[in-house]
Structure prediction request, 154 residues.
Amino acid sequence: MITIRKPTPQDAIQLSSMLCTDNILREYLGFGDNDKPTADDFLEKLQSWCRSRNAVTYVVLLNSTTAVGTISLSHINKEEKTARTGYWIGSRYRSHGYCSRAFKLVISEAVERGITKLISTIAEDNVPSRRIWDKPGGCIVGRDKDRLTYELPC
Prediction:
């Protein structure tokens, strides 16, 4: 079972450990060789990121105890009722449908916040992420080089 919630200190311990040891995820997120965040670093950077992007980030949990990644609503625009969303999942937890389930949950969170449209920019060759958007009816509304802009009405 997949759930999402705002991150706790225990979640930060699990996620920072993942960010230090999951080389596939580290490369995907652009971490340098010496960038090994502690749990406190993780929470501090996450809070700073959320403030600078008018965002809220949720931890993706497996069986309510194992943090497997994050998903966020960012660039929340109350007047236009839009938000961007993004996510990452640890490499060992990919291809199990966890991110798709978390995406459905974050859509519900967006609706509760009065958001009527979600937006994301996805690399054209990122087929798994594109499928996550395609399943609930996301549409490609733009293209810039090798990146696609998706929109999803909530």
The first helix runs from residue 9 to 21.
